[in-house]
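To whoever picks this up:

The parser on our side crashed when reading a file containing two proteins. I've narrowed it down to the boundary between the first structure block and the second sequence. Both blocks are reproduced below exactly, byte for byte. First block:
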Amino acid sequence: MAVFFNRRIPDEAHDQIGALASRRIHVFAFTPSNGWVIVTEDGRLFARNIPQECFEKLQEFLSAGHKVRCVAFPSAGGNRWVIITDRSFFARNIPQECFEKMQEFRRRRDPATWVAFPPGRGNRWIVLARNRFFARNIDDECFQIVRNLSSGTRPVERVAFEPDGGWVVLAQDYFFTRNIDDECFGQMRSFDGDRWKIRNVAFSPQRAGWSLICNDRWRSRPRDRMREAEADVAGNSIWSEMRSRNIPGAAVAVVQNNRLAYSTGYGHLRRGHGAAAHPESVFQAASISKLINAVGVLRLAHTTALQLDDDVRPQLNWTLGKRNCLPSVGPVTFRSLLNHTGGVIGRGTTSPANRCSNFSAGGGGFAGYPTSARVPSLLQILNGSGPANSPKIELSHRPGTRSSYSGHGLTLIQRAIEVFTGQSYRSWFSANVLSQLGMNTSTFALGPPSSLAPSDQVADGHLSSGNRISGGRNRYPESAAAGLYTTPIDLAQVIIMLNQGGLYGRRRYLPSNLVTQMMTGAPVANNVGLGCFLAGSGVSTNYSHGGSNRGFRCTLIGYPRRRAGVVVMTNGSDDAFPGDVAAAIQRAFGW
């Protein structure tokens, strides 16, 4: 049994679909001039106004017992076409790169199963295979959806492009559409509600016509945990929550069995613009920078004479002051600064500036500097002198007596690393941390990686209203506390290394005892490790860090005993959203 629905297609095509539907139609496709071709599972062929050579090649394949899987026509028209069968493919006058990619897939024993061409001339196409895909110059959100689904358990089977720019992605029982005819979308939902698997979607280049063909019903839907998570963010779909919370874009990476298992993107890098958010897109990591900074300090402790319990002050070439009300204090160690017990001004200990107790709430972070503002030097930040917009860094309470979240303390470490290594913080981390852990799209520079075009690969920050912040993003010279640019995929590499006790690939990046120390709580706050926060027990034991820069929110969570983890990065200002997405993933994967 089969069902179909057509609207505004040639009458003869409609009649032939009705006559051949019981034979299971594998292909129905239009040419740019509104010619069309139908091929059934049992080899019946019917066509009107397609290139003669294409028709003859179809006859040749069918006579040899091939099953035709795809017939596609580039929108430039003429004698341009491609045929894919269960055994081979043949193409005439399609873009050379597309043809070469199909040859490459075949050499890799994963032959192409589908090809589609969006409207417009030039090198524009997508090739699908069972285990891979490749696209060139298609709509970026369409690429995003195909990219997302390719890492799930419902592989993309077909993509169809509408002449006016809309598109459809079919992935077994799941589909995603954008800018297609409302009636077409409604009919797709109706078929899906009746458990029909949509086999073929075709758009006529004339009269806004379209055709839907279904050959089978789904008996059971394969489980796809990422699709479950997408549908269960605070009780709604992730897209619905992003709209209601004014979050233009988000990107996610999921670690399972200590490997990157899923990586997905949603929405856009800038509100109102076409560049989609991908897990390879660059976001500001905000305070997740502190976790990466801790990894760097551990690396220094492993490879140099520096020790975690060394006093940081001799490495500053600058005098760390203290408030007059504070008596003499002991060492201010790297360890205590990493776990926020170093006595440096921070959350709940910053103001008033003349007190050593009974503080007001707040403090601990940095506001950043708009692109129109002067950026202070590190010494100006330490001294709290113009143009720095943060107070001078000083001791406000005795080290080791309380936990006070302090980005300012991490800035002392930033200064110490530069003095100790004789290199800029950015350069040392690039060579000794980022490149060593495969974080090749990450940087502690004041701006995003210079190799990327900000318009199509780097996220802009947005306020809670949804409006883009001036200049796209603030700059954070307080690198150790808030200055990292990175991607979810890059941060997933850190989760994998820490989950494996310091192993990265086949080499040891950190000794296991240092990783254990990182995951050990502070004496006065057992939920605070070195550069991370600790929670859970048993197999649910985890480390985490969130991030909140102007226009960006993110979170990272690792589960060493589950060999799992998740990274969520957004270019919006909703504090709860990254955690809500992470919670949806935790539920879907049973963490």
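<<boundary where parser fails>>
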Amino acid sequence: MTQGLLNFIFIGISFVLYIGIAIKSRAGSTKEYYTAGGGVSPLANGMATAADWMSAATFISMAGTIALSGYDASRFLMGWTGGFVLLTILMVPYLRKFGKATVPDFIGDRYYSKVARGVAVVCAIFICMTYIMGQMRGVGVVFSQLFGIGIPAGVLIGASIVFFYAGLGGMKGITYTQVAQYCVMAFAYTIPAIFIALALTGNVIPQLGLIGDYTVGDTAVPFLQKLNNINIELGFQEYTSGKMSKINMFCITAALMCGTAGLPHVIVRFFTVKNVSAVRKSACWTLLFIAVIYLTAPAIGAFSRVNLIQKLHATPYADAPEWFKDFEETGQMAWVDKNNDGIIQYFGPGRSRIKTSTVFLGKSPTYPAYDAPERQRIGSVGQRLLANKFDDSNPNELWFGNDIMVMANPHMAGLPMWVIALLMAGCIAAALSTAAGLLLVLSTSISHDLMKKIVKPDLTDKEEMTYARIASFIALAVAAYFGINPPSAFIAKTVAFAFGLAASSFFPTLLIGIFSKRMNREGAISGMLAGIIFTICYIVYFQFLGGTKEQYFFGITPEGIGFIGMLINFAVSFSVSAFTPPPPLEIQKMVEDIHIPSGVAEASHH
């Protein structure tokens, strides 16, 4: 049996499972479409929330970023996990008690304003569209590798599948589909890690292998020390030390944390359980299920870096493994023979060129290896590498995308074909699960919060669901376009922008709305607008309008600017509310009520 056939079998079985669940769990009412009827068990919701949370950025890109950046990539681990704790303690128990189906619904009622609701809808659309771009890109990367096609075609295939089961089943269908997807993801992520840990370190537990010994012959050295030595020898920074500035590292981590606590597609998951007690139990299950993946990612990243260097560096291209040439064909890896020696050389900027050829002395160089027919399949994805081929100070000849490392890892380690097929199914499950959740929030924001609550209050349930499905189609079409033409090279970076937008808009507004009786609509609206406009302008300027690193505000990259946007939101909200009338007494009473534990109010009357 070939690898391709095995991939099709594993992925085909998973698709039949997802679509079957979506059909069986098809939403019959708006309550089932928006909140799955409110009767999901804490265990099932914990698993579904973990699947919704562990997007393509987590599954595909995070370990690749760790492989390339080492210590600096810990910002994703700290930000995303810490943010989930923040979410479960400060947000969801109170929002669940409030009893609204969406985040804009809470904001519209808490701040007694259609304008506030409208601003929240716009913020939700910006956040979810930015996030879903990364998921569509992840789907495209997986499908392109699976079918040997370009990323654009892969994005379109994935978008069609997501639309079918998310638009059909609503939250009810998505919830039980995500339970199945989590099971696929957990096995797909951990089983290859166990195999590779055993091969590299002799330890069956990946996490212990990461902090254990690496044995060569009769010599054993700590694995991370070995990795540091390899990095230094090849001209890279030590794997366990960081080069990112402390202020930038802090801002990115904080933006990811606070953005997590303001993500509408994660918050809405906790509206699907019966009561506040079930919310807390569900949150505990979710953290447990997330830990399975997040504690494995650093080991996968480190193992894949060692495997990449061992298999490719200093290897003649003629002897390169078959999987490397397969990844070249789909544009995920590229090699340019800068010194015409026919050997793949992977060096960092700290390594000076060993062999200098006369082709680098101002003459028009020729690259016979690149001009050969097999080299012409690189495509545009390798242009970053090709662009510096005249630069004698950069000896690196190998280019690869962060987002391919997790998929390449089992190939590099020579794992059985069924393990590779399982991993491919897991990659697709990760991207599809989050894309479906985001799509639901987008469609809900438009059909329920915009059409039903603002534009056309007399909408029937059937008409509302029709608008939701139309909105899903339009949103997916836009997301597919940006998945094909992403604002950033890496999935994790694109997704980080979404967290920055959530941190600068929803997080302060929700937090203040829950804990401050004095905050009024004028303050909330002004704060949301100030925070998200500042953050969007900063990201757009540096990603699309040619802003340079030297112009960064205190050295803060676009990934971390959401934290500054959040501070602006807080400052503007409190300043405006101080000079405007307080909210009505019934709103203040409502804020007091959501802080009283269930049953206390009733008991006080006896």
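After patching the parser it read the second block fine. The CA atoms of residues 29 and 461 lie 7 Å apart. The chain has 26 helices and six strands.
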